[in-house]
Amino acid sequence: MASQSRKGGVSLPDRRSAKNEGIISRVSSTISQSPIFYQGKRAASDAGVVAKKLLKSTGKAAWIAGTTFLILVVPLIIEMDREQQLNEMELQQASLLGTPPVVVAPK
């Protein structure tokens, strides 16, 4: 009975924590009900939606660019490399046979 106060039978630390929780809950409810809070929350939500759409469209664009590169550019690079090797081989054969090398202008 020494830890209980005279009124109500609740100890002092219990009253203080109840009072602090009351202040904290009142302040948080006041903040959460303010129009500035709702505007900030809406702005953050809109920013999240825009970021999600941007990432989604960027991913689609990267996929299109990557597949286009593989289909169109890589075969072109391979063909150019083959043509360069063929030109080098012709130059080697011409030098072995003693004929003057014919310089072919690039196309």
Automatic annotation (TrEMBL):
<keyword id="KW-0653">Protein transport</keyword>
<keyword id="KW-0496">Mitochondrion</keyword>
<keyword id="KW-0813">Transport</keyword>
<feature type="region of interest" description="Disordered">
    <location>
        <begin position="1"/>
        <end position="23"/>
    </location>
</feature>
<dbReference type="GO" id="GO:0006886">
    <property type="term" value="P:intracellular protein transport"/>
</dbReference>
<dbReference type="Pfam" id="PF04281">
    <property type="entry name" value="Tom22"/>
</dbReference>
<feature type="transmembrane region" description="Helical">
    <location>
        <begin position="61"/>
        <end position="78"/>
    </location>
</feature>
<keyword id="KW-0472">Membrane</keyword>
<dbReference type="GO" id="GO:0005741">
    <property type="term" value="C:mitochondrial outer membrane"/>
</dbReference>
<keyword id="KW-0811">Translocation</keyword>
<protein>
    <submittedName>
        <fullName>Uncharacterized protein</fullName>
    </submittedName>
</protein>
<dbReference type="InterPro" id="IPR005683">
    <property type="entry name" value="Tom22"/>
</dbReference>
<keyword id="KW-1133">Transmembrane helix</keyword>
<keyword id="KW-1000">Mitochondrion outer membrane</keyword>
<comment type="similarity">
    <text>Belongs to the Tom22 family.</text>
</comment>
<keyword id="KW-0812">Transmembrane</keyword>
<keyword id="KW-0675">Receptor</keyword>
<dbReference type="InterPro" id="IPR017411">
    <property type="entry name" value="Tom22_pln"/>
</dbReference>
